[in-house]
User: Fold these one by one.
Assistant:
Number 1:
Amino acid sequence: MARQTPLRAIRGMHDLLPDDSARWQQLEDRARTVLEGYGYKEMRTPLVEQSELFKRSIGEVTDIVEKEMYSFEDRGGDQLSLRPEGTASCVRAAIEHGLLDQPRRIWYRGPMFRRERPQRGRYRQFHQIGVEVFGLTGPDIDLEVILLTRRLWDALGLTDLRLEINSLGDSAERAVYREQLVSYLRPHEDRLDDDSRRRLDSNPLRVLDSKNPDLAELIAEAPSLTDALGSESREHFEALCSGLEQAGVAYQVNPRLVRGLDYYNRTVFEWITDALGAQGTVCAGGRYDGLVEQLGGKATPAVGFALGLERLLELSQTEPPPSVDAYLIAVGEQASAAAMAIAEQIRDALPQLRLVCHCGGGSFKSQFKRADRSGAKVALVLGDDELAQQRIGIKPLRVSAAEDPHAKTEQTSVAIDALADRLPDFL
Ligand code: HAM
């Protein structure tokens, strides 16, 4: 058969290749350690939900729902969407499984899907780690989730992130502000771009979020949402600010921070970097006290955030540790025949050891080359002579005598039975 044209991955959706997976795992492991350290438990929800779920939560008049969802009718005629984010699914699941009977701290990770225009830091399939807390009114819990993110940046060695926060008030306060904003913007309608003009009627707060530089001045002079807040919202926000100060977290209040999803109220926040160009928000979230009820559950306060793994990985410079400890080389008829069984014995004795067993034969030289390329710290060397004496060689592959004159670089022969005791010294 003639060779066919190879197919390619869908634009904006990326393969995670074997050489990159260690960095992802390291980031995920560190995040999990921090999250578990605050008592958060992982939840996993399906990648596909009813489209209605996202329309009712994220909002009909948002970029995500209007333009970016991957939606389709399945063979049974149901309207489904690939999840564009995790909050709606978490709320749906929490209601469905009766999790709202007590405060819950939940986290999740996984791919999300938005049909945005792909560019650096913006993909159509991307990955989030997110947190949702149910049943706590804050502001203490708002502070906790922000402190948790700061600890994450420390764990990932990230230093150049800045925190922006704002309060969106409650729905009554926003309604008042909405009118003020529309009265301010209406006379300038001709200066607005198409999106903003449409939003002026449907979702005017989102005009504040416009990235169009031509609108920057108009937006800068708009009335401030902060001035429309009532005393409870103000106190909530002030308590959060003073908590941040006490904990030594630097922040900026950004009164134009409104977020692109409709479910927020009161606290919203974003962690931003200047190092990634236009897609500088690496983590974002806030409070959404009305969403549970809006999705059919009993009124339950909630707060959460999600961070973008691709963006964080691009920022973090950490080198992951080597993923292979030892590479077993076997040359000679008996040694080759026995190698797999001996590898199993070694794995029994050292369950933590990451051991690659050479396959496919070849000379010592070619097997050493493979061992070196595997990134292993040591080669375990088995020849017929060693096998006859039930011994095995340990040859360090990574230490140069120039760097460490006392380092063992020579091959050391040990009894196979003693390998479990001796090998850790070489790793
Ligand atoms: P979001 O702001 O839409 O919020 O997304 C959170 C983070 O996901 C962003 O700050 C960014 O790092 C990453 N992200 C979003 N879209 C893309 C993309 N196309 N490519 C790469 N990374 C992206 C939410 O999703 C809310 N559910 C957060 C939340 C949880 N609020 C309360 N709880």
Note: DSSP finds 15 helices and 16 strands in the chain.
Number 2:
Amino acid sequence: MIIVALDFPNADEVKAFIPKLEGQVEWVKVGMELFYSEGPAIVDYLQAQGYKVFLDLKLHDIPNTVSSSLKVIDTMGVGMVNVHALGGIDMLSKAREVVRDTLLIGVTILTSHNDQAISQLNLKGNVFENVLNLATLSDECGLDGIVCSGQDLKGMKDKLREKFLFVTPGIRLNSGSQDQKRIMTPGQAMRAGATHLVIGREITKANDVGASIAAIKKDIDDSLIA
Ligand code: C5P
């Protein structure tokens, strides 16, 4: 499943881009920049165009504040939202109580953190051990899945519930890696166990958006046959 990351600064740029998708994908992602600039109206617009929206706001606060905020988000009818698993068991459980019909995804350790950053935070273990711990907590609290890099999928899938979702960014096929350090092709990520691929610039910056999506779908299909 492809989720196109709409990392645009405002609605005008989104509205100029959306016709290029021409209904070739089901899901789009709205992140903090776009949401803070346009508010719920951008979500309404995308849903009216027929897209399912992943609202990527990475909520992290005390349980009461997160659950109150999720109640507001729940009225928007989005298909997927996320919270930081570092918010802890109480926050995750309360979040799950509020968001019943929307896919609830846990952010584990940000991919901008390496082992050194983990140690500076005085967390025990390396990045992978922390990702696995937070994934397990998310699973136990009834979340639907986690965001994780393709590399972290290996060694994690069999430790979590069978239907757990793995939402994976850092996907590249033809374009350069830009600021992403740990990248995988769409096919490699799906073979490693990703269930949803978050893809931004590979699609949004393509000269031919339709051809880019077709190539991504072919790479996925080929990898699943192979
Ligand atoms: O353009 P690109 O495909 O690199 O965009 C990836 C998207 O996934 C961006 O919206 C980025 O914020 C998001 N993301 C990420 N790494 C994470 C979590 C989210 O790149 N660990």
Note: The chain has one domain: 2-225.
